[in-house]
Specification:
Layout: E1 4-9, H1 11-22, E2 31-34, H2 41-45, E3 50-55, H3 59-66, E4 77-82, H4 96-99
Parallel strand pairs: 1-2, 1-3, 3-4
Length: about 100
């Protein structure tokens, strides 16, 4: 199976981003949209890899949660794509272990 696309974008953009990506359904894997960790629990538990699309401060907790498999050789999250140029909202300096 193909990786799942997890979209974690602040509320004002989440619907629009998910609508655009859902037009690709059938050509890509499942798409899960949400703004907090609970939205992605089923994907975390059972997946063939995750591609993340993120924007805004809501992404920090979701990145931290989905990337908590740092002790594994094969990581769950394969790609994190930011829709914004400024990544300070993600507090990446606090996620060194998760992102290494």
């Amino acid at each position: 199976m193909a990786p799942t696309i997890c979209v974690c974008v602040d509320d004002d953009l989440c619907g629009a981003v998910c609508d655009v990506l859902k037009q690709l359904e059938g050509r890509i894997s499942a798409i899960v949209c949400g703004t907090d960790v609970s939205c992605f629990a089923s994907v975390k538990a059972d997946n063939d890899g995750i591609f993340m699309v993120v924007s805004g401060s809501c992404a920090h907790a979701v990145i931290k949660d989905l990337c908590d498999d740092y002790d594994k050789e094969e990581r769950r999250v394969k790609l994190i794509y930011s829709l914004s140029a400024g990544v300070d909202a993600y507090k990446l300096s606090e996620l060194k272990q998760e992102l290494s």
